Amino acid sequence: MGRRATSPFANYPFEENVTVAKRQEKDAGSTMIKLTRLGGEQFILNADLVRYVEVRPDTFITLTTGERIVVIESMDEVLRRAVAYQQAKHLVPPPAPREPAVSQIDPPSEQAC
Question: Would the CA dihedral through 25, 80, 53, 75 be positive or negative?
Fold first, then answer.
């Protein structure tokens, strides 16, 4: 049996309190992420093709095709945009709503019969 691929975003701390509507508005219907090359040229990247991102000191993105792209955005910003893209596709669900803290409840008093 082959190894099952895991998401590179599995342990990333997701943006809190971002509703689906806000994510869709932020992404403006785009299914890709907008980045900027070192020369200032903006382009759209399919985040599904990102294999890994590294800093050397510029930010290098290596794609699953083997192609490498250098961008001005930080590694953290590329990761944030890629995670938002995955959340918008519903591949990575948004964080579950937090349960309100339960206050300590006094035990019921015993009643004499």
Answer: positive
* Choice between 80 and 16, residue whose per-residue pLDDT is larger: 80
H-helix or E-strand spanning residue 50: strand 50-55
Distance separating alpha carbons of residues 108 and 50, to the nearest angstrom:
57
What pTM was estimated for this model as a whole?
0.54
Mean pLDDT in residue range 86-111 = 68
Q: What residues pair up with 43 in beta bridges, in sequence order?
A: 35
Alpha helix (H) ranges present in 9-74? 20-27
pLDDT of residue 106: 60
Is residue 23 within 8 Å of residue 87, measured between CB atoms?
Answer: yes
Residue with tokens 């290596």: 62
The answer to whether the bond into 8 is cis (omega within 30° of 0) is: no
**Are residues 63 and 49 in contact, defined by beta-carbon separation less than 8 angstroms?**
yes
| Helices 20-27 and 75-88: angle between axes, nearest 10 degrees | 120
